[in-house]
Amino acid sequence: MDADTLGGIQRVTHTVAQGLAERGHDVHVVGLHRAESPFRYVERPGYRHHVIHRTPIGKVSRLGRHRERRVLGGLFRELGAGFAVLASPGVVTRLAPLLPEHLLPIGQYHGSYEHARGSWHLGSVRGHYGRLEKAVFLSEDDAWLFSEHALLPNTWAIPNPLPAWPTRTAELTGHRVLGVGRLEGVKRFDRLISAFAESCRAVGGDWELHLIGEGEELERLRSHARACGVARRVVFRGAVPAAEMGREYLDGSLLGLSSEHEGLPLVLGEAASHGVPSVAFDVSGGVRTLVVDQETGLLVPPADVTALAAALAGLMSSVEERRRLGTAARAHVEAFRLERVLDRWEALFAQVGR
């Protein structure tokens, strides 16, 4: 819907687009609407970028719909035979009927089955994705669940890629827990703060929780940290540029993920690529793909703050265990390196194009 907002879907879209362009593909990124605060993901894009409407996401007038069909029709006629990757249920329902025969539709879903089941997404995926060439999900677990419960005959799994691969790994000797993401309700950083406070009481020492991100929950989370007695230990860092996040991971010793729901959260993979293990709520197949419980990190039941606190405390008290899990985590997420994910996209294109 909007290709330039600061967000996970947009970041993945531009990363994959640039990677495919560098492999010689003619790639076009199409955003139906203008972003309210455009974010530049690629400095020198090798792909073409189109924005159809000058207005942010919202209701489109009849005249606007007519213009949308006209502009997209002209763009589609310019393109040769290829594939149209439709990145959300809303885009599928809006654009799939407009595609010419020479552009084969592939539907992508960036959430988890667990999240789709609790929203309108499952009905939309069930009603529309089965008519596309392929329906692409973030993990094998999610692809299987959608094939079983949404009765899709055309599922495929491709994870989100890591945009870069670091050459250095964290020492894991510092006393810093990381929480990375938008300060919004769905991320439930209040639960991470509560669990951190409980783990500090169990472990002691000078541990800090650094929350990296911006959002409307900032003041509420500050108040919650004060109520939990850890106001001086919770550091609100604000937004950190993507180019500087490597240093944040290198300075961390473990990462906590306390979200209500997730698709395939790249923060887990980015932390792992730096050798930093994670403790996460087990909320999706994507999370389970990135974190293998007891092998590359720790998973706890969703919303179980006591279990999250115990898992954090266990790793906070043992640098040896952090290093064991961190080493295995880095090896595990090799599969999410950009070149390997691009290979999977090209394999999909080859199969669909037969």
From TrEMBL:
The keyword Lipoprotein does not apply. It comes from Streptosporangium brasiliense. Pfam families: Glyco_transf_4, Glycos_transf_1. Residues 177-331 form the Glycosyl transferase family domain. Keywords: Glycosyltransferase, Transferase. This is Glycosyltransferase involved in cell wall biosynthesis. Residues 7-129 form the Glycosyltransferase subfamily 4-like N-terminal domain. InterPro entries: Glyco_trans_1, Glyco_trans_4-like_N.
